[in-house]
Amino acid sequence: MNRDPLAWARLGQKLKQARLARGLKQSDIANEADVSLASVQSVEAGTVPKSRMPITLGPIAAALGWRAGSVDAVLDGGEPVIDSPDGEWQTVVADQRQLEAEHLEGIMMNSMVRAMKNTPSGEIRAATQNALDELRRQGYLPETNSVQPSTISENP
User: Fold this and answer.
1) What b/e readout covers 78-96, taking b as 16+ CB neighbours within 10 angstroms?
2) 37-44 and 26-33 are packed helices; what angle lies between their axes, rounded to 10 degrees?
3) Which residue has the higher pLDDT, 40 or 147?
4) What is the C-alpha separation between 64 and 24, in angstroms, rounded?
């Protein structure tokens, strides 16, 4: 079992964010998970268990829509997987603003190049910039007032 206090603090934060995103109180989750309010408070506080994984943790995570294995994934530095309303699963990223614009631009450019093999690089760059601008408008990336240098070089 992971005993890292930072991992448990991260888990508590993600559980709290998931609860707040659903507009629920701690007592709502306690009732839905059939656990005590103190259990929910302890988990959200990031309390490291003394000996073993708390048996209340699974029902709390399930009450928030987290799939089995999500708690371990978060403790290991990953993200929870939740059930979406359409029955599909999705990985939850708690704060999209943590994405580095240049890193995201590189990922998008590489993906577009693979998908659009005979498209001129200028058109790919413009499409990438449009996507980044939309992510900024929607708050997933911070607004910038300056030009960000590209880490991708153009082929002659």
Assistant:
1) eebbbeeeeeeeeebebee
2) 120
3) 40
4) 10
**Rounded distance, CA 40 to CA 42, Å?**
5
The pLDDT of residue 154: 45
Burial class of residue 151 (count of CB atoms within 10 Å of its CB; 0-12, 13-18, 19+): exposed
Query: What is the rounded CA–CA span in Å between residue 67 and residue 10?
Result: 17
The pLDDT tens digits for 90-149 are 444 444 444 566 666 766 776 676 677 777 777 877 887 888 787 777 776 666 654 444
69's CB contacts (< 8 A; 6+ apart) are 81
| Mean pLDDT, residues 74-100 | 62
Euclidean distance between CA atoms 125 and 105, whole angstroms: 9
Per-residue tokens: 40: 């929910």
Question: Against a cut of 0.85, is the pTM above it?
Answer: no
Reading the block at residue 136, the tokens are 């900024």
Residue type, 56: T
Torsion angle (degrees, nearest 10) of CA 48, 78, 144, 148: 130
